[in-house]
Write a structure and sequence with these properties.
With 247 residues, the protein is α+β, with helices and mostly antiparallel strands. The protein has helices at 79-83, 85-101, 109-124, 128-142, 188-199, 212-229, 235-246; strands at 2-15, 19-26, 30-36, 55-61, 67-76, 162-165, 170-173.
Length: 247
């Protein structure tokens, strides 16, 4: 039985001498792995449509075992993402987050649109770090490990000075600092931005300007939170950190 899906390639693995296993994140079926037979041959009709980050429509056989890719109609290869090392590093991290944090074949049209819009904006030249941090915050929500950012995790207070508590799982206000002596001290700009990122609709993204110091604070909070609660190790994260250190 043939099935058609709108998807983005989030992982590729060589298989044998000429085949490629392609992992798609699709609007209709969530994460799907398909076998692209002969895709690594130079003259294969599947070669250009089975590259990492490719967005398009994919036709594959539906079965309980490994599905077989029959056709790949690419709409966008996100050329700028593919050719710019910095954008490639950020995008590789984004797609690996999706690959590691979502279940197979569990549809989530919201996440599909979020992934597409993030890659699209990155390809257009918008700030890679801001886009990635926005995506990370949204992935915390999708994966069910969302932090408390609208109020103090202890007393529910919404006003005053806030720090971030990894142990408590969110913002902690000045009245409750004593509950976590190891809380992360952050600026109130970082507090406001983390709240904004949490509720922000990416499709309405305009020009957001964030200072390098605030970006560093947000990165530190998100890195520590993911390390504490996600339970995943990402190879792409090490590469991205190296790229960021060089900038």
């Amino acid at each position: 039985m043939l099935q058609k899906a709108e998807g983005i390639i989030i992982r590729t693995n060589d298989y044998g001498e000429s085949h490629r296993i392609v992992t798609l994140y699709t609007r209709e079926n969530g994460k799907v792995a398909v076998m692209a037979r002969g895709a690594r041959k130079p003259k294969s009709r599947l070669a250009s449509g089975t590259q990492l980050f490719t967005y398009g429509y994919f036709l594959f056989t539906k079965s309980k075992g490994m599905k077989s890719l029959q056709q790949a109609d690419a709409i966008d290869h996100f050329t700028s993402v593919m050719t710019d090392l910095t954008k490639t590093a950020y995008s590789a991290y984004i797609v690996e987050l999706v690959d590691k944090l979502v279940d197979d074949e569990t549809p989530n049209p919201y996440l599909f649109e979020l992934l597409y819009q993030t890659l699209h904006y990155m390809d257009e030249g918008k700030d890679e770090e801001i886009l990635t941090q926005l995506f990370e915050v949204k992935m915390l929500m999708v994966s069910g490990i969302r932090p408390v950012v609208d109020a103090c995790v202890h007393c529910g207070n919404t006003e005053g000075e806030f720090h971030f508590s990894i142990r408590e799982g969110g913002f902690i206000c000045h009245r409750c600092f004593e509950f976590d002596p190891y809380r992360i001290q952050i600026s109130q700009k970082t507090v406001r931005l983390l709240r904004l990122y949490y509720h922000f609709d990416l499709t309405r993204l305009g020009n957001i300007s964030v200072s390098s110091e605030t970006k560093k604070e947000i990165k530190y909070v998100l890195d520590e939170y993911f390390q504490a609660f996600s339970g995943v190790y990402l190879k792409s994260k090490r590469f991205l950190d190296q790229i960021q250190m060089m900038e």
